[in-house]
Amino acid sequence: MCDKDHFAESVAEYEARGLVTRRQFGVLLGAGVAMMLPGVANAQAVTEREVEIKTADGTADAYFVHPAAPAAAVLIWPDIFGLRPAMRTMGKRLAQSGYSVLVVNPFYRVGKPTATGATPIQQMLPFRKGMSPATDMADAKTFIAWLDAQPQVNKNRKVGVQGYCMGGPMSFHTASAVPGRIGAVASFHGGGLVGKDPATSPHTLAAATKASFLIAIAENDDKQAPNDKTVLKETFDKAKLTSEIEVYPAAHGWCPPDTQVYNEPAAEKAWGRLLALYGKALA
């Protein structure tokens, strides 16, 4: 659900609630306020660096951040706006909670977009060129192998993967590509988790994994596809996989702090559920 019309509906709905106008949001973003996130209790000191990872199709740029001691690894797939300061901020916050985190540029085949959550989506769609479930899985294998080669990663612990918007199905693809390593999958306002064609729908891949799943759904996504949550629950139950599926009172795109529909209370609840998931599934 990352098309420009749907996101515009999300912004309009958010405005209708009187929470923030486009103009107010622009002022906040310009002042850097929208990039702020609540602090981490007992935050660990972390080291961060920009990295380049060789893939079958080129060189992917990414952000790697980790605590001092080897920790469970987490791969983050960004939303349609890609690797940017907001995603780095989220990755760093997760690392401060005790994880070695890799946030990737999923568009590296085409370039390095300089976007924020306020960038018009139509400007981002060309960056999707050449991406497919097959490229997602190939990249996932490469990124997980890169993480496992880092001394800051505890390879005795399972790996987590989380995605936002288009990153939701990409997280399912990752779990399917390396089922022996992925212990947890989290999707936040993921688009297209339940596709029209069962042969290619991301949700059908869950049965091939051994992961626990956290599915956080935006309320306007749920209104457009109210049966998806039922299909997902049935899929997880049939495969005997631990799962948590919830519709949040927030618009599509509510989690990253630089989007026009950022909803801090809902984002913090989702973040808390993410930490609970990783605390159990990656132990």
Which terms would index this structure?
283 residues; alpha/beta; 8 strands; 20% strand
Q: Which percent range describes the beta-strand content?
A: 15-25%
Helix content: 25-40%
- Low-confidence sequence ranges: 4-8, 10-34
Radius of gyration, whole Å: 17 Å
In what order do the strands lie side by side in the largest sheet?
A: 1-2-4-3-5-6-7-8
Task: Summarize it.
The chain is α/β, with parallel strands linked by helices.
What does the model show?
The protein has an eight-stranded mixed β-sheet, with helices on both faces. 36% of the residues lie in helices and 20% in strands. The protein is built from nine helices and eight strands. It is globular and about 45 Å long. It is of the alpha/beta class and 283 residues long. β3, α3 (85-96) and β4 (100-104) form a beta-alpha-beta unit. α5 packs across α6 (167-177). The longest helix is centred in the C-terminal third of the chain and has 18 residues, at 264-281.
